[in-house]
Design brief:
- There is one protein chain.
- This protein is an alpha/beta fold and 921 residues long.
- The protein is built from 30 helices and 20 strands.
- Helix 6 runs parallel beside helix 8 (234-263).
- The longest helix is centred in the middle third of the chain and has 35 residues, at 507-541.
- The radius of gyration is 35 Å and the shape is elongated.
- The two termini are 18 Å apart.
- This is MMPL family transporter.
Amino acid sequence: MSTLLYALGGWSYRNPWRVLASWLVLLVLAGGGVVLFQQGTDNTFSIPGTEAQEGLQELQRTFPEVSGTSAQIIVVAAAGDSVEDSPYPEDIAAAITEIEDMEGVIAVSDPYDDLVSGLISDDGSAALIRFQFEGQATDVSTETTDALYEITDALAAALPAGSEVAIGGDLFSTSLPALSIVELFGVLLALVVLIVTFRSFVVAGLPLITALLGVGLSMALIFVATAFATISSTTPMLALMLGLAVGIDYALFIISRQQDQVRSGVDPGEAAARATGTAGSAVVFAGITVLIALIGLSFAGIPFLTTMGIAAAVAVAIAVAISVTLTPAFLGFVKGRVAGWPVRKEEKTSGPTTNRWALLVTRHPIVTTVSVVAVLGALAIPAGSLTLALPNAGMLPEDSQARQNYDLVAENFGPGANGPLIMTGTIVTSTDPLTLMEDLADDIAQIPGVAEVALSTPNMTADTGIVQIVPETAPEDPATAELVRELRAQHDRLLEEYGVDLKVTGFTAIAIDISDQLGAALVPFGIFVVGLSLILLTIVFRSIWVPLKAAAGYLLSVLAAFGVVALVFEWGVFANLLHVTKTGPVISFMPIILMGVLFGLAMDYEVFLVSRMREDYVHLKRARGGHGDRDTALSAVRSGYTASARVVTAAAVIMFAVFAAFVPEGDTSIKPIALGLAAGIAVDAFLVRMTLVPAVMALLGEKAWWMPRWMHRVLPHFDIEGEAVERELSLADWPEPHTTAAVVAADLAVHAYGARPDQDIDLVHDVSLRLEDGDTLLVTGPTRATRALLLTIAGRLTPTGGRLRVAGHLLPERAAWVRTHVGVALLDAAEDPLAELAHALHGQCRIVVIDGLDRLDDARRDQAAALVRDAASSVTIIASTQHESAARALLAEAHRTDISTLTVSTHATPVAASAAQEENA
């Protein structure tokens, strides 16, 4: 990966206009797709397979009058008046007539109708006009909603002074998220941080440009996708927030690495390639972790949340792609100016000094660890009171009509009137449906938590009945959720007594089902995320304790972030300052989104911070003769922290600023998510990664990098630190600049691990060779050793020591290229050895390895010689043999006369040498 990114970064630097033009073309095409295909967002929430959803679908077939979206107008009489006195009935009747004539309206409930009850308050001070639309909220046109506002305003103007009129209901219960000037302050603060970090106005603008371009492209693609999928209005805002934050940070990491190298004297183009290969590798890894976590939102089994996760993942993927291509391209535009303002003379002479904070926390690791855990534990306490619900009109700003309607209904009719429940079932077997529905209503009205049964009636064909229930509590109140569960618990009793299979449904019940399913998904999702972090970090750092410490820190960060959200939205602390219009439950999918996003971002900081500590530990250990002790580990922690603290701090401040900017004026759905992410980033970056991590690493010492031997064998190797690039650069002139050698090796070793150190085997040990184009080499020795050497030269096995270059490509860094350009013929294992040999020789390969050349019988030897003879004279052949004379005879028959021989041996490695071999691996 790192070598591929190195090449990509160098190409992008040299071809900046091509890269920029390509991304701009994609942006224009996506923008055109928005104009042609976008259908708008859809805030209809549903969970297929739940009782509430099944009940709603049943109502759509049998009782459409109550299945669509609804709205309501509340009229509150002036002080001392009654809505039952003139002119209220007349003016309300006129408004009802206008509403009935509107397109899409299928039913209107007149509060003065003798057959309707519960729409006039007990004291006669308020009346409700309820009306039902065909279809869902997204099916109602903007013209219709505008007309409803006009009717409401006209009714308010016609009624006596002092009366109140407001429109609301399900149709108006959610608001479309919109950007405000406040979000711009987050971007401006990010710009200030970038200017301070890079010491350049020009360079500071580059991460912002790349991030904004990526966000623009991802937004366009999301709106194009509305033509094919249902996407909620929260989805683009979440993708915008994430894409902006990670886009700035990822470009920051790459530019910072390139700038450091330019200041140290490296050519800007070479520095851009190196930065993309090293920091870019970490960016790709970090981006992949965020992608996996976001796609993992599908654990909840809720379609709109899965879509939200995929859309946000697309935004992050685009941010990664732009970072590793457009960032080096922009560096190609600025060239040497990337160095920024000159470094002060005293900084040049003094050099880097150990960070004071790192010294403090590593000198007192126990006190630091206990203090951080205690602080985060205290922050997590409010999380125990966190309650979840889907957004409703009660969470809207107080100046909106829908919020005023919600509050007036709750005040005059009780809080449950804003979220009625519906029980529905088939009554086709009943001979007296009216009496049946009356009996059901009387029974259900006795259940605790039911304020009243507003309606209990069969449909026009008397095959389906509905019971409309008004709870005693508000839709988002946990007591309402308990009532839904109690009504469902009565299912069997009601079925036995009345013969009706009742389902509890309605939009309030659907919202409760979504919240319950999201809550149930948190634990498996948490296990998935934590398990993923353990696996990925174990692979990356080749350690047991580092991943455990990272996962524990992540859990502390998540709990603390939940606690901060609960502190503001449940307890009301700083609620007015942050413009929280109403304390209470937060949006249901906040916890799972927060867990997924914060996981990826926390892994960013863990990788950038701890990878530098590991790199320094390995270098210090080698400098001290392979001996790693506590002092070595402690020095590495301090030096690694010092080297990475500036960039990690800048990245964390930028992310905090971007997320925090969405809190004060943010949409009710985005606000708690933004606050949780801002708090989580601050806690994770500054308390966990930059305080707790160095303290715990100091406590662990050299044990931090311990891993069982069997895990070394099983786990793959991820090069996220750009080690392959660094090694290629250091060996660029080996064995000599622009070498012509087909194969060259020095002190080559291939290691096989045993169950114990004393069972380790060097399959290949201290092999040095050099072959030019057209040379022939016979390798003799034990079969395991000769085969291991040939497969290593062919890129199929990984060398564990020494140096190896094949066709100008260094191994193992360029193993993927070598595997496709070196022919392999394993004659022992082949069903048709001659076909195997022919395939290896007659391709485009300039180098061919042949295992078991002398294993052919006499009948096939002549044919094999003919195949070798027909190969181009410039093809380099490396063959293994147990019988050198037979192999030489075959090659001589094939007109290969200049043949060299190499003998290899296999032997057990002493215990003392095993550790060095393992580290080298």
